[in-house]
Amino acid sequence: TQLLEQSPQFLSIQEGENLTVYCNSSSVFSSLQWYRQEPGEGPVLLVTVVTGGEVKKLKRLTFQFGDARKDSSLHITAAQPGDTGLYLCAGKTNSGYALNFGKGTSLLVTP
Amino acid sequence: DAGVIQSPRHEVTEMGQEVTLRCKPISGHNSLFWYRQTMMRGLELLIYFNNNVPIDDSGMPEDRFSAKMPNASFSTLKIQPSEPRDSAVYFCASSPQGAGGNTIYFGEGSWLTVV
């Protein structure tokens, strides 16, 4: 069973549109991270959230950690083709040693 | 600064052959991870080393898989014998301390195809 469920699995939108992707779990995480992976490369960290209810902004990207620290969302405003990639959430529980990754949301932004 | 370096980048091998994947973590990082990525299962943690010692190998699929970290600057993941279902992208990653809230830096991956 997957500890972190991401939705949607695939998303194809046009440049300029807004979108939100979700990361949900029944487990509580001490921290949650979002990574972006481009084809042929490894994932690269975008942000880390550690406090329930925390909101972080990275240019056009807004990340939110749920109050109960079980879920997170990533909102992209005015998407651009350069945003295309696989967005992965990853969380660490208090009892775990390493990060557990979701399967990711594959985003395609067309001009 | 050099990132995590993996080799080979691509490997195609026949079923039954031994495969060895190599990783050089970022200098100064004391945690090293091997992950496997497939479409069906996503990114799965295979094994986690801290200060060259295997801490959690519960993700290693079976005895055909083994990993070593003889020193702080080198690790290997070996599959013997390889099977077609082992085809995947294998990522090595390192972190300055553990994985809790700290950045994990991934290599570019080793793309393995077993035919």
Q: Which stretches of chain B are poorly predicted, pLDDT < 50 over at least 5 residues?
A: none
Rg of chain B, Cα atoms, Å: 13 Å
Total strand segments of chain B? 11
Outline of chain B: globular
Count of strand segments of chain A: 11
Of all chain pairs, the largest interface belongs to: A-B, 23 and 25 residues
Q: Approximately how much beta-strand content do the residues of chain A carry?
A: over 45%
Describe this structure in words.
The complex is a heterodimer of chains A (111) and B (115). Helices cover 0% and strands 52% of the residues of chain A. By secondary structure, chain A is mainly β. Chain A is globular, with a radius of gyration of 13 Å. The N and C termini of chain A lie far apart (37 Å). Chain B is mainly beta and 115 residues long. Chain B has no helices and eleven strands. Chains A and B meet through strand 5, strand 9 and strand 10 of A and strand 5 and strand 10 of B.
What tags apply to this protein structure?
heterodimer, A: about 110 residues, mainly beta, six-stranded mixed beta sheet, five-stranded antiparallel beta sheet, 11 strands, about 0% helix, about 50% strand, B: about 120 residues, seven-stranded mixed beta sheet, four-stranded antiparallel beta sheet
Topology at a glance:
The complex is a heterodimer of chains A (111) and B (115).
Chain A: E1 5-7, E2 10-14, E3 19-24, E4 31-37, E5 44-49, E6 55-58, E7 61-65, E8 71-76, E9 85-92, E10 100-101, E11 105-110
Parallel strand pairs in A: 2-11
Antiparallel strand pairs in A: 1-3, 3-8, 4-5, 4-9, 6-7, 7-8, 9-10, 9-11
Chain B: E1 5-7, E2 10-13, E3 19-24, E4 31-38, E5 42-50, E6 53-56, E7 65-71, E8 74-79, E9 88-95, E10 105-106, E11 110-114
Q: How would you summarize this macromolecular structure in one to three sentences?
A:
Chain A contains no helices and eleven strands. Chain B has no helices and eleven strands. At the A-B interface, strand 5, strand 9 and strand 10 of A face strand 5 and strand 10 of B.
